[in-house]
Amino acid sequence: MDPLPYLAGYPVDVQMRARELRNAGRLGDYLARRYPDAHGVRNDRQLYAYVQALKDRHLRQSTPLHKAIYDGKLQVLRHALGTHTTVSRVQGGRLKASREIRIASVFRDAPAAFLETSVVHELAHLKESEHNRAFYNLCTHMAPDYHQLEFDLRLYLMHRDASSASQT
Ligand SMILES: [Zn+2]
Prior knowledge:
Layout: H1 12-23, H2 27-34, H3 44-58, E1 65-71, E2 83-91, E3 94-104, H4 112-124, H5 133-142, H6 146-166
Parallel strand pairs: 1-3
Antiparallel strand pairs: 2-3
Helix pairs in contact: 4-5, 4-6
This protein binds zinc ion (ZN).
The site of zinc ion has 4 residues, from loops.
Domain YgjP-like metallopeptidase: 93-153
Pfam families: YgjP-like (PF01863)
Organism: Luteimonas terrae
């Protein structure tokens, strides 16, 4: 069986069902039916406002965010859900940690739900660097159906790869 890199962490039966869906050419339909809505977050300024609004709603107390950008160079396969970096800056003589969030550019044209999923994931990393239970608790606090969303987001990336491969 060919591996499914996006679903490497999931149970074998789940991977099998995803593979069947893909091989039957039904991934696109499945995703379009479940996630019909696009979003209007077109540029970095809008992305920052979007991320900040989610943060204010759910994680007001966490580390300040100084930047949020779409990054066209992010390796979607390796960093399917963006990256998160801590940038230390000297401010008025003391070191201040502040964070920036980078979202892979593929999410600019993805369904609204997947941009949200990606942002929720990165916001949770403001408090938890590992993918542990506390991390996923934060994710489901922000998006109650986070686990389903992350899974479907991975299907979306898989579908994207499959359709660009079939066009070459
Ligand atoms: Zn992560």
